[in-house]
Amino acid sequence: MRRIYNFSAGPAILPVPVLEAASQAILELNGSGMSLLEVSHRGKDYEAIHADAKERLLRVLGLSAEEYTVLFLGGGASLQFAMLPMNFLEKDESADYVHTGEWSKKAIGEAKRFGTVNVVASSEAEKHTCIPKNYSVTSGAKYFHITTNNTIEGTEWKSYPTGLGVPLIADASSDIMAHNANYGDIDLIYAGAQKNAGPAGVTLVIARKAYLETATDDIATILSYKTHAKNDSLYNTPPAFPIYVVGQVAKWVEEQGGIGVMGQKNVEKAGLVYDTLDAYPDFYDPAVTVKEDRSLMNITFRIKNADLEKAFLVGATEREMDGLKGHRSVGGFRASIYNAFPKEGCQALADYLHDFVKKNG
Ligand code: PMP
Questions:
Q1: Is-contact 228 235, C-beta < 8 A?
Q2: Is 195 among the residues known to form the active site?
Q3: Ligand 1 near 76 CB (within 6 A)
Q4: For ligand 1, is residue 201 a contact (CB within 6 Å)?
Q5: Of 242, 266, 293, 359, which one's alpha carbon is 20 to 30 angstroms from that of 217?
Q6: Secondary structure, 3-state, 101-133
Q7: Residue from 54, 195, 265, 269 carrying the catalytic annotation
Q8: How distant, in Å, are the alpha carbons of 60, 183, 241 from that of 64?
Q9: Is 90 exceeded by the pLDDT of residue 215?
Q10: Is 171 a catalytic residue?
Q11: Active-site annotation holds for 44
């Protein structure tokens, strides 16, 4: 099997053992004579997969099954932008949001349809090149929302606010399981799976059970967190294949030593690239200069001489590197190096960054 260095922001690289397990399960599941794609979601084979994925995710994040529940939903993280306020925000109520980039902007935009949004901190004036450090909770706010990793801009919260006195909600779509974060301080985590947790097609919602109890009942059945919690995410037919892969990714993370080890590896991997960019300040322009806020997952940068951008991408392709083009809204380059991305690939990019300066600097 040929594998190139896939720096894509998502859908993104998956661990090879996970791909192998998934291809086997597509052919035949557990000697059942049926493919994973063919079995009933009410049958015992799928039941075991469903339960295993939930258990592993909680274990990896250091959360207890007594306190937290895992929901597998459709609609991507984008649906969560709306579903969250639908469930927890009334017209005459407000919620606090920290604005850190394109995705928080979308989350804020949706919440405004349902209640009042207090943007309690924003990095907009800094063009989202840092994580705001000063924020306070608005009196009466129903919850406090952050985006743990800003996939487009390349900033990341390395630890989450504590002691807010209101429920903390986190869009962790692009860095769930990436480092040893204080997940237990979050009341509801949501994440589209297709970056660090699996393939597109399932969204993870990991929430404190007691918090979900406080959601409204006056809502369309399918959009109610309570519906999915009560039915163990089997109210409607779940996306069995992505859920299986998410379970396999969580298993792989456990086998690697858990999120503590993942975090150490991610620091080393990202360090190889950031250090090289920083070594050539006259040539490269890393988007995020506040080092503690730099994402371990998405490294955003430019070449000072924009005329060289095309040549950089052509040369990258020659070295079997793909997906380095920056998001269409910001341009430049982005190297997404999620958990499954190998350290050798980061070294290969560092070598290329170095050689490119030698050739063009
Ligand atoms: N939040 C973040 C941080 C993202 O990176 C993305 C992009 N996938 C989304 C939300 C939207 O996710 P989805 O495409 O699953 O709706």
A1: yes
A2: yes
A3: yes
A4: no
A5: 242
A6: CHHHHHHHHHHCCCCEEEEEEECHHHCCCCCCC
A7: 195
A8: 10, 11, 25
A9: yes
A10: yes
A11: no
